[in-house]
Fold each of these.
Amino acid sequence: MKTFPNDFMWGSATSSYQIEGGHNQDGKGPSIWDAFCSIPGKIKNGNTGNIAIDHYNRFEEDVALLKSQGFKAYRFSISWPRVLPQGKGKVNEEGIQFYNNLIDALLKHDITPVVTLYHWDLPLALQLESDGWLDKGIVDHFAQYARLCFERFGDRVKHWITLNEPWVVAILGHGQGVFAPGRVSNSEPYLAGHHLILAHAAAVDVFKNEFNHQQGIIGMSNNCDWREPLTDSDDDKKAAERALLFFVGWFADPLYLGDYPEVMKERLGNRLPEFTAEEKELIKGSSDFFGLNHYTTMYAAENYGKNQGGNVYGNGGLSEDQNVDLSIDKSWQLTEMKWAVVPWGCTKLLAWISERYSYPDIYITENGCAYDDQVEDGAVHDSERIDFYRGYLQACHEAIQSGVNLKGYFAWSMFDNFEWASGYSLRFGINYIDYETLKRIPKDSAYWWKKVVSDNGV
Ligand code: GAL
């Protein structure tokens, strides 16, 4: 058996819009996802997060399930418009109370809360009034919102994540338009990304200056798949490196190295905004740990300019900016999301991050898979999911052995939930949700988790 360090953080992750429901309960304001879901054709089967798994009303049951399945930590996000219905100004005390109750319930069960401030549900008011992430004013609004959260919850919450996957907000929300706020542009992603980084840094500044006594840690969670060079050629190796820099380097380089990757500056010209010297100072070092959401791997090859203005394959970002061709090996197994299961890509990515950013503490804040799980005789046998987790956890173990400072791992996810534009058609959970009755049925992986966590090993 491969054993993990005793203090390894074993958790599961969720986000507010994907599980809470209660979309207009107790004074919550609308978010851009509430609005986006109301546009016909944007979400598969016209699904919405209006009810989701009704976690807002059933969180106690959910916390008890987390406990029963052995989880020691739980990553959830705060819905900004639930606590600040207009994004700023008047506080909704009932929203605050909900998160107080959730945090208290977790602590009562010895489960460490890990709190994300922004998992994509921007208050709609801020989008309508000032174009959300496209306006620099968002930086201050986010810092104020963060201050409120530190003030109200920081006595009990010691692990904070400012932003979940700014790449997705930028590319899927402002480039391809497939996620809220649904904008399509080849320059707005870089402007939105710029403000996301500044907002992160502003929130961390508030935390370090005003709440240092709370002795918490704070960082950002970035998504990144591994990019393996298709061949040994220098061109393909460079293409794979470039793809990683456009993916995670975009957000991590400023935080760890003080500025955007050189290759992005060269290729994007004035579509990539610049940081002032003062901003660079604030941004550099603004992360106590590296949060990584990792799901899959693709081959990367030099494209030799063939796809100028061309299409996007998978998680390629704006491919014409990178000139990278992405592909997968036909022999790789695919999840229901059509993402390839390639555990060795995880080990390689952890090594790449460690080398580039001088061995930071890393938490895998999401990793998981969707499968077409079926209930048979009252049970779900999700053996593929168990294999997936075993493979990726072994990959993590290997990384730790080779010197990576991996401190924790969060499975995505505890429950089947609203999978954004795919609605409820994809099942990522280790608990099955019957969306008619909202009943939770543990899958085989739930029992497996309990064993892994109690043994600290795979
Ligand atoms: C991540 C995201 C989650 C979840 C997951 C599975 O990008 O943070 O909210 O949807 O992917 O697709």
Amino acid sequence: MYKTYYVTTPIYYVNDLPHIGTAYTTVVADVLARYHRLKGEEVFFLTGTDEHGQHVARAAERNGVTPQEWADRMVVHFTEVWERLNISNDFFIRTTSPRHAEVARRFIQKLYDKGDIYLDTYEGWYCVPDESFWLPSQLADGKCPQCGREVELVQEENYFFRLSAYADRLLAHIESHPEFVQPDMRRNEVISFIKQGLTDQSISRKTITWGIPLPFDESQVMYVWFDALLNYISAIDYGVDEERFNAIWPADVHLIGKEILRFHAIIWPAMLMAAGLPLPRQVFAHGWLTVEGEKMSKSKGNAISPHVLIDEYGVDAYRYYFLREFSFGYDGNFSRENMTGRYNADLANALGNMVSRVLAMVERYRGGEVPESGKEEEAADRALRESAGRVLGEVDGAMEALAFNEALQAIWNYLGAVNRYVDETAAWDLAKDPDMAGRLDTVLYNQVEAVRLTAILVLPFMPRTGEGIWKRLGFTDSIHLHHLPAAGAWGLFPPGQKVSKGEPLFPRMEKGK
Ligand code: ME8
């Protein structure tokens, strides 16, 4: 029995609306979750919202409502946009839920009882937007070294977590498990950060009230990051339902942006070690998206809402674009021109036209009924079949490495091979010659079979498109019932089944739109 494949996104702060940056990680996680489901695995895909912290409390204050009211109002923007993006998360965790608070309090009590938490005076700087503590020596020109914004002086009695006590074990783990922190450049960053020496981490706030009260000192609330990281285990019932927890934990991959790497690759594993829990298999920190060459920010007002792009391009084109255009792990730039170019070339042409051409020919030459293939295989048929066999392996390798753009490249190479097959076998010529009826049957069958595989291959990336092709192919069951590798075998299309061309999948977009 496989362990449940567990993939997470960061839980997003509710101080601001979701934008294409937050949606990026969520779409990637969804594609990964769907790919593993396609392989027949049990999957648990978690996303949610981070609702405590000063940043959120201040946003609420500015808007004249309580933080809870603010969170309740903002969370809807996240759930709505995820629904529109066809995000298939199995659960949505909110850190203000009673279950989360209960698990977080039990967890911190455990560490306190063990002696890993102690009271001391904190004196240093705090970046509210990033919710992070900084030592004077870490500041960059007196500003937050992470985001460049103003920091505030904090001087209070706080509880500290003995992070330093775990430095050696953590370093040993990271060094002996190269896959634990990825990509490699991020792994190197973490290693050198730990080697510089870890200091104990303040994990509570005394002068703040918006947060989870500490069970051993109700006058303080938990530091928002300590609280937030625990979402990954509170969502799967840590300490509440051990059987469920053990079936899902450890996470297979925490997907995050590079700016929150230290929290996930240093503090979080140390917290888990302190609690005696296994570490996640991987923390993967991806790069940042810029918009038309600029960093997205509130002050610049250039943050793009996913809704705007979904309205223009459709959900599946949205999902496709971000996974195809950006090399996962690296920074990338969004531009409309680029997105429209990809839409027309990759989706309208290579994919959409190919599917309509193939199905239109079956309609025209065989009344929509897919013929049985002849026994004889010509060179072109073999090349197509082999290319179908290859693409499955290539996609699997790329997906295991989280190289989404390479997986899509492999699929589009395959689509290129299918298009070439259609051109070279020229069914329209065969149709003119009654003696070639048998050959035409074979050619049409192979083309349809190639389309069936296409539906399965694109499914994790573009679920509606995969479902739509499946329906056009005349299947009445759900495509989601078919799993790889079995469903990838060549020749499974049932002859005699009726297909229909249907509406274009991706109507061409006008230039300049
Ligand atoms: O950091 N490009 O929440 P957050 C790519 N609550 N990804 C981006 C992005 C961009 N321009 N902007 C945001 C927090 N992201 C904490 C997390 S987890 C226990 C707590 C994505 O709302 C990326 O995944 O600031 C980044 O790490 C995350 O949104 C930050 O979301």
